[in-house]
Design brief:
Blueprint (H helix, E strand, L loop, with lengths): L1 H52 L7 H5 L4 H18 L7 H11 L10 H21 L2 H29 L19
Helix pairs in contact: 4-6
Length: 186
């Protein structure tokens, strides 16, 4: 009977220890989720504050009296300059340069902002295809193909630059890796 009582006490102690570990882990997960939620909320508040700060300035009174439209042109130029400054963040890739390079050079332009896993094989294939096609097919027949392929490559270059600016690193457009599945809470 003493052994049985000792065994029951040991099993109960193990169950209590497991329950305590489980409760501690759940509390830690709840704290992490609360911290993430607070972080997201703080970010959205900062973004809202920035948007409120950047409200358009009222037009000057002499701009309204200007019949030639010079005042409105200056206001438009100021707005365009501020938009340009926002787009030219430090460390960001220019979507204009990426699009032009990709349109002019095909997949070789993808090397500017694109994922190397996609840009390098595509560039090698592009160079091989151009070399082979220039030997076999007359160039006059390649022009219509280039009018379709090069703009599509330019669009891909712009998407690469936008993805780079959004994430801060080179992003893949094709064959994205599967996303990790979140564990369901018990």
């Amino acid at each position: 009977m003493e052994r049985l009582a000792a065994l029951e006490a040991e099993v109960k102690a193990d169950a209590d220890a497991q329950r305590a570990r489980k409760e501690a882990a759940l509390a830690k997960v709840r704290e992490q989720r609360a911290a993430q939620l607070a972080e997201k909320q703080a970010l959205s508040e900062r973004q809202a504050a920035i948007v409120k700060k950047k409200a358009p300035a009222p037009a000057a009174s002499d701009d309204a009296d200007d019949d030639s439209g010079l005042g409105s042109a200056l206001a438009l130029a100021k707005r365009a300059n501020s938009v340009k400054a926002e787009l030219e963040k430090k460390g960001a890739k220019s979507w204009l340069k990426s699009g032009l390079a990709s349109t002019a050079l095909g997949p070789l332009g993808w090397l500017y902002a694109g994922s190397f896993r996609e840009a390098i094989p595509a560039s090698a294939a592009w160079l091989a295809l151009v070399a082979l096609a220039s030997k076999i097919v007359p160039s006059i027949l390649l022009v219509p193909v280039l009018f379709v392929v090069l703009p599509l490559s330019g669009i891909a270059g712009v998407l690469y630059a936008l993805g780079y600016n959004k994430k801060g690193s080179r992003q893949r457009l094709f064959d994205k890796p599967p996303e990790k599945k979140a564990l369901k809470s018990g």
